[in-house]
Amino acid sequence: MGGQLLTPEEARPDDVVLAWEGADVLAVRLPQLSDSLDHILASLERGHGRPLAELDRKAKQSVVRTLEARGAFVVRHGVEKVATALGVSRFTVYNYLNYADEQRARAREQDG
């Protein structure tokens, strides 16, 4: 996710300080959500072994489901950033999200 390790003395109020047996030993500075989205996209691209824009439709839908589960679309301009990475329009990303919702609803009906 792109976090940065720091000494406890370097920690800011929004950093996570880890303690061991009552003593602060390490601080972690988490990246802004928009930076995290870049890291997630890069990781997915490495996992697929090629640019996300070169994936077929089913693989792109799977990427969108993964990104949704990781909270990518709560980030400001997340849909736009994902659409650019996938080489599709924002409308297509929204269609993939709607398709994923429909699939989950069908699965619940079958289980229910």
What does this structure look like?
The protein is an alpha+beta fold. It folds into two domains: 1-30, no CATH class; 33-111, no CATH class. The chain is built from four helices and three strands; from the N terminus they run βββαααα. It has helices at 33-48, 57-69, 78-86, 90-111, and strands at 4-6, 16-20, 23-29. A three-stranded antiparallel beta sheet has the order 1-3-2, with no helix packed on it. Strand 2 (16-20) and strand 3 form a beta hairpin. Helix 2 (57-69) crosses helix 4 (90-111). The chain is elongated. The two termini are 36 Å apart.
Unreliable segments of 5+ consecutive residues: none
Number of domains: 2
**Elements, N to C (H/E):** EEEHHHH
Helices, by number, come to 4
**Helical proportion?**
40-55%
Number of E strands: 3
In short, what is this structure?
By secondary structure, the protein is of the alpha+beta class. The chain has four helices and three strands.
